[in-house]
Amino acid sequence: MRRRVSEAEYQPVHINVIPLIDVMMFLVLFFVATASFVKETGIDVNRPSAQTASPQKKANIMVTVTKTGEVWVDRRRVDIRAVRPNVERLLVENPDSTVIVVADAETPARLMVEAIDQARLAGAPNVAIAATDARGG
After folding, report:
1. Is there a domain that residue 117 lies in?
2. pTM above 0.70?
3. Cβ–Cβ contacts within 10 Å for residue 84, how many?
4. In the chain, at which end, N or C, are there fewer CB atoms within 10 A of the end residue's CB?
């Protein structure tokens, strides 16, 4: 004998999405926590340490000078004389930028001074020298 089932006896099917939302939130938090938001200079240099080093918070213009005398502005290799026009161009895009000169510990002081001078001639309001914090940073 077949039993007849009326429509009233059928239970509606529900898909529970709460576990899916939990997993998705966990993944979002995981990717946010593990993402790196550090702007790299593009060139590896051995920075000197300084007792007074402090982190810079604004959008920065990176001028990198290697110990071999190569000069890079925002990941583009340039001649030392081209630092000024490149910094001027980047300052037009973001006038409040700080120019950070990143130099190897073995970079000749002449090159660092020349890079800083070119950045100041470009009209940079702030010029800083990147250093590693000697206290452990």
Report:
1. yes
2. no
3. 20
4. N
- Residue 69 domain boundaries: 49-133
Q: How many domains does the chain have?
A: 1
Q: What percentage of residues in the chain have a pLDDT greater than 90?
A: 21
Instruction: Give the start-end residues of each E strand in the chain.
Output: 49-50, 60-65, 71-73, 76-78, 98-103, 126-129, 132-133
Work out the average pLDDT over 93-111: 86
Say how far apart CA 137 and CA 135 lie, in whole Å: 6
Helices within the chain (DSSP H only): 18-34, 83-93, 109-121
Query: What is the rounded average pLDDT for all residues in the chain?
Result: 80
Cβ–Cβ < 8 Å for 42, 78: no
Q: Is 87 exposed, middle or buried (0-12, 13-18, 19+ CB in 10 A)?
A: buried
